[in-house]
Amino acid sequence: MNMEEMKKSSSESHPPPTSFSSLPYEIVVSCLARISRIHRPTLSLVSKSFRSLIASAELDATRSRMGKTEECLYVCLDLNKNKPNPDMIVPRWYALAPIPKRQKLLPVSDLFPYQHPESSTIVSIDSEMYLIGGLVDGKRSRRMLFLESHRWRSLPDMIVPRERPAAEVIDGKIYVIGGCSKHWGEVYDPKTQAWEPLSPTTLDLTTQKSVVPGRLVMGGKVYEVNGLSLSSKPDICLAEIESNMWREIHISGSELFWRENEYSLWCVVEGLEKLSPSSYFPTRPVSVANSGGRRVTVWWKTVEYRRQGRHYTKDCKTDIWCAEISFHFFQIYGITRLRGCIEWSKSVYTYDGCDCRSEFFLHSAVVTH
């Protein structure tokens, strides 16, 4: 057998691989629908046809029919503010990859299009996330922005500028109250993309949303109600321990606490000693956020200075840590207690540079893909 015959035989026994784009359209959609949505920004770089398909509503509809939807936690972190790193945008949004044993924060590819407001509010509707109001250069903002498929775009402004308003999704509409001197709210309809004044008062909503007695709970956040004024409790989140049974979760020092309502005493969440032999957390945790599925995430960071020989250098790195915790009730001598179970705990993001500020966690929202 000569060389040409050998090449011909080899090509016949090993035909060239089939191009993915040459497959039937239905098969391509079915394959892409099985891939976690967290990887879509990377997949969209493959080709224009991929980018168009990934942005289509058909792909999401296929995922829904196949039962492949998943909850993903999005967080906004303010990192390295004191010593800005030119390679970082402060603050920035990240998605916590919902992949077991491979949890990592992945930056949202689309940078925030404006100066990021302080004291804004976040709500989500299925795969969409909305950022509402806040402070820009010390002034209240009417702006609302919308994130879908890792792309930000502006929506119609609110009627009134608001700072840290309370917001909730009810029957597919976004209800917003507080955050201004006006004693009325407004409601946004995503279908018509229009705002209208809200007729119920704050007290009316308190009665309707009385998950925690004596408090207003909107968007998973707890608000104190004083007449028609609201004050948020950013260090408290709600966890659904059992069906329709919610409890307030709070961080103090290096421990997690819980209570039934504002008239109850704060009690330590038990069972979290494995996070650290000396205390529950290696360093002081700074925030607790509901991550969906009756779980919460606890966030903190550590700073490590690099060594050269026996001496430390000025170079350092910062690790962002996250632990996901589930809960269950148990009783001792007729007294109800709450035990926490550490589902996982690890560093989810590392960057060069040091920032010793303890506060870095700004927002979180659970989005269904």
Automatic annotation (TrEMBL):
> Looking at the record's lineage, which domain of life comes first?
Eukaryota
Where in the numbering of this chain does the F-box domain appear? 17-66
Q: Which InterPro entries match?
A: F-box-like_dom_sf (IPR036047), F-box/kelch-repeat_ARATH (IPR050354), F-box_dom (IPR001810), Kelch-typ_b-propeller (IPR015915), Kelch_1 (IPR006652), Kelch_FKB95 (IPR057499)
* Stretches with biased composition (Basic and acidic residues): 1-11
Task: Locate the coiled-coil region(s) and give their ranges.
Answer: none
Q: Region (Disordered) spans which residues?
A: 1-20
- What is the official name of this protein in its record? F-box domain-containing protein
